[in-house]
Write a structure and sequence with these properties.
This protein is an alpha+beta fold. The protein has a single domain, classed as NADH Oxidase (3-Layer(aba) Sandwich). 37% of the residues lie in helices and 14% in strands. The protein is built from 5 helices and 4 strands. A 4-stranded antiparallel sheet has the order 1-2-4-3.
Length: 197
Amino acid sequence: MNETLKTIYERRAVRKFKDKAVTKEIIEQLLDAGRMAPSAINRQPWKFYIVTKKEDIKLFSKEIGTAALKSIPQMGIKNIVKAAASSITHLSHGIDFLKAPDPVFHGAPVVIFITAEKDNEWAGLDIGMCTQNIMLAAKSLGLDSCPVGFGKFIMQAKSYSKLNIPAKEQVLLAVIIGYRDESPEVHERKRDNVIYI
């Protein structure tokens, strides 16, 4: 298996990290990999807000958890069921969402909030590809990662202003990076989802 495929197959969503810093040089390498992602009309809509200060990461994590729970009543029954299923997934990883000191970012030493301008309808797809590049680059450099959809709730957190994100932008995703302290098993992949035309 070539190195690219090996990295793809070995990447896992990691939710337990060692207390070990990631250097700025490595973070810059990861961002450069993200910047190489394709984007609609080559707009490269992403902006990266990097948080490495432990106190800020824990504060954001707690406030995001609170904001996410407050949003449940406005979600409707169908979305509440989906959110509950997502919480069960977290619990299956041994994470007590309500009691953990860092329930959203899991002790990762690096959190990257990725934004785009609010009026860019393709930004979500572009940022998905950018984030995948970052995660694969991290794996290739001996780090691990996890995309965090709950990261978007930072916009409802009391401490949101600490990120200095302009009003014209929105957080679409966060990704956590660090040195793993767990070895998640690979989940079975669906094989009945291909239709040749």
